[in-house]
Write a structure and sequence with these properties.
Strand content: under 5%
Oligomer: single chain
Number of strands: 0
Structural class: mainly alpha
Largest sheet: none
Order of helices and strands: H
Radius of gyration: 53 Å
Length: 123
């Protein structure tokens, strides 16, 4: 009877030890799975952050390129307007010079004509 009780106690202890071992293995497996899930989430978050940073850099570069192109276009337009104004000024000055020369020529012709008429009447 004592041997049977000892055998039953040993079997019970073995069963409890096996349950505890299985429980521990199950908990370790769950912990590993949780750690893997957390690592996967962290990796995905890091990849998402990197993609967002890359997109922001590309957007900033595109904006800078657009601003540079706009500045260059504005500078080109200003240079064209300056050149046009200089051309118009030169044209106006040339026209004014031609008008002065024409007026001087007309005045000289009139003076010459007056001298001729005076000479005809004088003598």
């Amino acid at each position: 009877e004592k041997a049977a009780a000892e055998k039953a106690a040993k079997e019970e202890a073995a069963r409890v030890a096996a349950e505890e071992k299985a429980q521990k293995a199950s908990e370790e497996k769950a912990a590993k799975e949780e750690a893997a899930r957390v690592a996967a989430e962290e990796k995905a978050a890091a990849e998402e952050k990197a993609a967002a940073e890359k997109a922001a850099k590309e957007e900033a570069a595109q904006k800078a390129a657009e601003e540079k192109a706009a500045k260059e276009a504005a500078a080109k337009k200003a240079a064209e307007e300056k050149a046009k104004a200089a051309e118009e000024k030169a044209k106006r000055e040339a026209e004014e010079k031609a008008a002065r020369e024409e007026a001087a020529r007309v005045a000289a012709d009139a003076k010459e004509e007056a001298a001729r008429v005076a000479a005809e009447h004088c003598c």
